[in-house]
Amino acid sequence: MKILVLEDDLDYQQSIKEYLVSLGYEVDVFEDGQEAYYAVYEKSYHLLLLDIRVPTLNGYELVKKLKSDGKDVPVIFVTSLTDINNLSIGYELGCSDYIKKPFALKELKYRVEQILKLYYFHSNSDKVMLNYGYSYDIKNEILYKNNEIIGLTNKEKSVVFLLVSNLNNYVPIERIKDEVWQDSYINDVDVRMCIKNIRKKSDKDFITSMRGLGYKIDKG
After folding, report:
1. Residue where a domain terminates, one of 121, 141, 172
2. Is the pTM of this model over 0.70?
3. What confidence tens digit (pLDDT) does each residue in 150-161 have?
4. Are 12 and 103 within one domain?
5. What is the DSSP string of 123-192?
């Protein structure tokens, strides 16, 4: 899962990045709010971890701009501010949580895990049940059938994660290309071949498709 960290204190920035990377997350760090804002549109993130007092565009302003753009990404504000009026601003903007400096890295771990589970899977469990007897380990991004691991390539894992993150909803093929392959040039045939390979390893109806809408996985 991909996390954007906006923090202009280099010590905090480095320790947060190193810790989250050690937990298996992909992390990009920024010191400037405007640069972070642009990055959200250049690369899809599953969570934004934002300091409030940063150069150019503060954390509140960044979220306000994203909301006005219709961009919906869970946000945790990292701040030393304790004024209740400032806290209320964040919640009114729709942030998922606050974490106050100084904090233990283990506290950050639990807050990040909880937000990702609730936001993407609406569950407190590490596993989500899928159609045809499959289950998905959220934390480790592993697909199971009857408790047996389905071996997938990295690209196949990324496609399954994206579809599970949007359970019961079709994901357009262009979005799959953008989020899974990112800057690499591929065509629709490459995506269809990847889906075909996942079906071979799982079930021909595990991933359903509809012309013009894309692909989806249904909850069990």
Report:
1. 121
2. no
3. 999 999 998 998
4. yes
5. -SSSEEEBGGGEEEETTTTEEEETTEE----HHHHHHHHHHHHTTTS-B-HHHHIIIIITTS---HHHHH
